[in-house]
Amino acid sequence: MPGLTIGDPLPNLQVQTTHGPIKLHDYVGNSFTIIFSHPGDFTPVCTTELGAMAAYSEKFSELGVKLLGLSADDVESHKAWIKDIEAYCNGCKVTYPIAADPDRRIIKELNMVDPDEKDSSGNQVPSRALHIVGPDKRIKLSFLYPASTGRNMEEVVRVVESLQRAANHKIATPANWKKGEAVVISPSVSNEEANRMFPQGYKTTDLPSKKGYLRFTNVE
Q1: Where along the chain is the active site annotated (predicted)?
Q2: Alpha carbons 92 and 75: distance in angstroms, whole number
Q3: Which one, 71, 100, 183, 186, has the greatest CB density within 10 A?
């Protein structure tokens, strides 16, 4: 995918938001941060998405994760729209900042430009994109959805929990993994190292190849 993607450093942009001006690196600090763009204020799917983010904001806070919304609309539009979002999600409060980008500069630098959609004036609009940024200010994961498909917040929570565990242990999470389930030990870890690193033990899956690379353990 062209432009900013997994492994790249987050540009340290200054952005205007509903909480005032912020520098991206200062905002991220030492936390995981979710930066998510939406095609436009006062639109149906985007209203449901930002409402869902508001509803999940306490969960993200428990995980130590910050949120930052973004679209090409201006700050005053965002502030007016927040009333609709909060009404839709039954009074959930939009406590996270929403950044404005009327010049379309930020969405270009963050690789959040929709390749197909344009507004009524023919201007580019943000894609329905989401970057998860690590404390090292690098992109750890990116989602890109078409304008017609809203994001699944349970999946966003799941991948945050996966990334946080992988950052603390030499593990990866298998297909369909959920919090509380077993993880797999990285192939770069020898059995001797695994015995030291995972005193709780691990189970090696018996495979036809007889290669003991599929090792499951549990971590918090």
Answers
A1: 46 (cysteine sulfenic acid (-soh) intermediate)
A2: 20
A3: 71
What fold is seen in the domain 14-150?
Glutaredoxin (3.40.30)
Alpha carbons 214 and 11: distance in angstroms, whole number? 37
- The string of pLDDT tens digits covering residues 131-155 is 999 999 999 999 999 888 999 999 9
Number of Cα atoms under 13 Å in the Cβ half of residue 119:
18
Please report which confidence band the pLDDT of residue 67 belongs to, taking 50, 70 and 90 as the band edges: very high
Where do the structural domains in the chain lie, given as residue ranges? 14-150, 169-217
DSSP label at residue 212: -
- Distance between CA atoms of 173 and 119, rounded to whole angstroms? 39
Predicted TM-score of the model (pTM): 0.93
Sequence letter at residue 21? P
Closest CA to 107 of 144, 66, 150, 138: 144
CA angle 84, 98, 46 (to 5 degrees): 50
CATH class held by domain 169-217: alpha beta
End-to-end Cα separation, the chain, in angstroms: 33
d(CA 130, CA 127): 9
Amino acid at 5: T
List active site positions: 46
